[in-house]
Automatic annotation (TrEMBL):
Residue span, SAM domain: 190-257
Protein species of origin: Amphiprion percula
Stated name of the protein: Bifunctional apoptosis regulator
Bilayer topology annotation: Multi-pass membrane protein
Presence of the UniProt keyword Transmembrane helix in the record: yes
Catalytic EC class: transferase
Keyword field: Apoptosis, Endoplasmic reticulum, Glycoprotein, Membrane, Metal-binding, Transferase, Transmembrane, Transmembrane helix, Ubl conjugation, Zinc, Zinc-finger
Compartments (UniProt record): Endoplasmic reticulum membrane
Length: 458
């Protein structure tokens, strides 16, 4: 009897081999086809759901389970052990490629149906994602354990950067770098010396009219009374129409704000401490929403100069240097809007880099840090989009965008509420950390994305 059973199993094995090699032969032998199918379904079934294996995963004990069944078991028990024999597995279980290809070939219709059911079940999708994240974190922790001296020195570097940030804050907070007082002092209280200082900051061409303002002892109140006719006549005698228009345009801004508008990054930070910190972090996390915020709530003071700097209009030959300020206040042309919208949608960080490049002569090292950081953030955004595309999850992009919008709005609202209670020293530390040391962190993130990309869950 044992010999007969042994001969019968040998004949079944031969039939299974012919099943995989010659499908036309099976159509001629229905009895052999039914026998092989019954044996195959038993051999290729999961010991959890008792159905055909989908993405079979082999544990160290040798038992095979569906990937999603193993993920559901791990999520419910939080144990790294086999659901059948309770033997603990080592490392992170991987999909058995040979067994997966065999099940896909023998039971293609059943496997496709089950895959569709798994993808349509949100609970199973969440379990698979959590299980894969556990494996990714397990791989990263093992990698960190073998870093050795490199991990030690990276910790030392982080500590040194923290100390450097505090030194910078102390250095710049106690008067070593003096900011222009005109950005906070009301124009009606300006002294004649401060009026002359304001005039000189308009450009080299303003030096021609310095003496008349000094001789007339023009203070802040008298400055607010000046108009086009007063500037044209003696003793000011500003006969150049472009010069006179530039002075009047800047004077209108001073009248509207009540103080001198900021001319560079440090003056902007001194005048808008909370807003500058918010914009610095918001531009890193979501540049498109931040630029939209500037368009809606800070159009003339910040958005227009930003747009004209990143997408300048075509300059004429007879246009002087003194009219550059006027260019930043005129309505943008349709060509500028078209160029801006393309960069806004595709390369938002390039807009930030171009804006920093324009201020290279004023902020030498700061502009370079911003440009490098913008390049690194562009690479990280490209890697994120590439992962969505390769994993066929591009259809989830609207949902991710909505979640990102809600997250940014909630964080911005929380920042607006907590900002008045945060000490100035802490805000300065956060500001200089994001400005100068964020590129160091982003370099490490870019290396991780390029050298160790995340694996696909299912």
């Amino acid at each position: 009897m044992d010999m007969f059973q042994h001969m019968e199993w040998d004949s079944v094995d031969d039939g299974l081999g012919e099943l995989m090699d010659e499908p036309t032969y099976l159509s001629e032998s229905p009895q052999s086809k039914s026998t092989a199918s019954s044996i195959s379904e038993h051999e290729f079934s999961c010991h959890c759901c008792y159905d055909i294996l989908v993405n079979p995963t082999t544990l160290t004990c040798g038992h095979n389970f569906c990937r999603h069944c193993l993920a559901l078991w791990w999520e419910s028990s939080h144990k790294n052990e086999c659901p059948e024999c309770r033997e603990k597995w080592e490392g992170f279980p991987k999909i058995n490629i040979l067994l997966r290809d065999a099940t896909d070939k023998l039971f293609s219709e059943v496997v496709q149906r089950r895959r569709a059911e798994i993808q349509a079940n949100p609970k199973i999708s969440r379990s698979l994602l959590a299980f894969q994240r556990y494996g990714d974190n397990l791989g990263r922790s093992r990698t960190n354990q073998h870093k050795g001296a490199g991990f030690f020195f990276s910790g030392v570097l982080s500590a040194l950067t923290c100390v450097a940030v505090m030194v910078l804050v102390y250095h710049w907070s106690y008067g070593v770098v003096e900011h222009d007082l005109l950005i906070s002092k009301p124009v009606s209280r300006w002294t004649p010396e401060e009026v002359v200082s304001w005039l000189e900051q308009l450009g080299p061409w303003a030096q021609l009219y310095r003496e008349p303002f000094q001789q007339e002892n023009v203070n802040g109140r008298l400055l607010l009374m000046l108009g086009d006719e007063e500037l044209l006549k003696a003793p000011y005698s500003i006969e150049n129409q472009a010069h006179r228009r530039a002075v009047l345009a800047e004077l209108d801004r001073v009248k509207a704000l009540g103080v001198k508008p900021p001319q560079n990054l440090w003056e902007y930070k001194a005048a808008n401490a909370g807003k500058s910190l918010f914009l610095l972090y918001a531009l890193k996390r979501s540049p498109r929403l931040t630029i939209l915020y500037l368009y809606l709530f800070d159009y003339s003071e910040t958005f227009l100069p930003f747009l004209h700097t990143c997408c300048p209009a075509i300059a004429h030959i007879d246009q002087g240097v003194e009219s550059r300020f006027l260019e930043t206040q005129v309505k943008p042309s349709w060509r500028q809007w078209a160029e801006f919208l393309v960069k806004y949608c595709l390369l938002p960080y390039q807009l930030i880099a171009e804006f920093a490049w324009d201020w290279l002569a004023v902020h030498y090292w700061t502009s370079r840090f911003i440009i490098v950081n913008a390049m690194l953030l562009s690479v990280l955004e490209g890697c994120a989009l590439w992962r969505l595309w390769t994993r066929a999850r591009i259809r989830t992009l609207p949902r991710k965008m909505w979640n990102h919008l809600w997250k940014m709005l909630s964080q911005g609202f929380a920042f607006a509420l907590l900002w008045p209670f945060v000490p100035q020293f802490v805000c300065n530390c956060l500001f200089y950390w994001a400005l100068y040391f964020s590129p160091i962190i982003n370099i490490d993130l870019v290396v991780q994305q390029l050298m160790h990309p995340e694996t696909q869950a299912l």
